[in-house]
């Protein structure tokens, strides 16, 4: 819970400096924030795992949840830890992301194309679409590689995102290059956001974490 709140504050700070986010109305800010926080959360956690090479899920307070079931304080029945490591962190580790790529990647995660937040008016959808194009270019620009290599690097990063959240890959799942890059776990198309969504709902129902109120307090400016 402490880790969740730490990352949430970081999420709020990142969104507060994104100009496209400030253009949204309050209800659309809520919709975007609620739909994209989990993606932001798992992106950072998996980047931390990749950087430290931990055999478990790393948290912002220095603790971790082990992959080895013999040491898990609570059984990971859904295999979330294995998915985070095998399908996301190991591919990220092979890319050796820079701090700049991790930071811009966290913003890119917010505007990743699918799933678009539901029930957004056309004007807001256009803002998000333009933001996505902008941060795609930022991901390319921040790389020290050539423009072509940077674009290929971004493509590899983008292929990892469906293991974090729902994604549409337009038929490339069966391509040879895609299968060579991805692990079997990724090809199963499970995703971390879906597998952990029940945890947030349970905490909300038990009033351990009142998610809706938390988002309202942060994203709705009171008169």
Question: How would you briefly describe this protein structure?
Answer:
This protein is mainly alpha-helical. The protein has eleven helices and two strands.
Commentary on this structure:
The structure is a single chain. The protein has about 220 residues and is mostly helical. It has a single domain (about 1-220), classed as Retinoid X Receptor, CATH 1.10.565.10. It has helices spanning about 1-15, 20, 25-50, 80-95, 100-110, 120-140, 145-160, 175-180, 185, 190-205, 210-220, and strands at about 55-60, 65. Strands 1-2 form a two-stranded antiparallel sheet. Helix 3 packs antiparallel against helix 5, helix 3 packs across helix 11 (about 210-220) and helix 5 (about 100-110) packs antiparallel against helix 6 (about 120-140). The longest helix has 27 residues, at about 25-50. InterPro entries: C.elegans_NHRs, NHR-like_dom_sf, Nucl_hrmn_rcpt_lig-bd. Keywords: Receptor, Transcription, Transcription regulation.
């Amino acid at each position: 819970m402490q880790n969740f709140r730490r990352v949430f504050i970081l999420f709020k700070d990142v969104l507060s400096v994104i100009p496209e986010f400030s253009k949204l109305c309050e209800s659309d800010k809520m919709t975007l924030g609620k739909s994209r926080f989990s993606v932001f959360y798992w992106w950072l956690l998996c980047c931390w795992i990749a950087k430290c090479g931990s055999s478990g899920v790393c948290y912002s307070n220095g603790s971790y949840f082990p992959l080895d079931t013999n040491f898990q304080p609570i059984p990971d029945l859904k295999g979330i830890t294995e998915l985070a490591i095998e399908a996301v962190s190991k591919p990220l580790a092979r890319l050796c992301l820079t701090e700049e790529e991790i930071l811009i990647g966290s913003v890119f995660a917010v505007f990743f194309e699918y799933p678009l937040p539901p029930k957004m008016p056309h004007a807001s959808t256009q803002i998000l679409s333009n933001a996505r194009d902008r941060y795609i270019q930022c991901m390319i620009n921040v790389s020290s590689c050539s423009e072509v290599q940077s674009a290929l690097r971004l493509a590899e990063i983008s292929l990892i995102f469906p293991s974090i959240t729902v994604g549409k890959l337009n038929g490339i799942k069966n391509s040879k290059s895609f299968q060579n890059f991805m692990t079997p776990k990724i090809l199963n198309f499970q995703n971390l956001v879906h597998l952990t969504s029940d945890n947030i709902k349970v905490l909300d129902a038990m009033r351990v974490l009142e998610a809706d109120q938390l988002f309202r307090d942060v994203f709705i400016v009171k008169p």
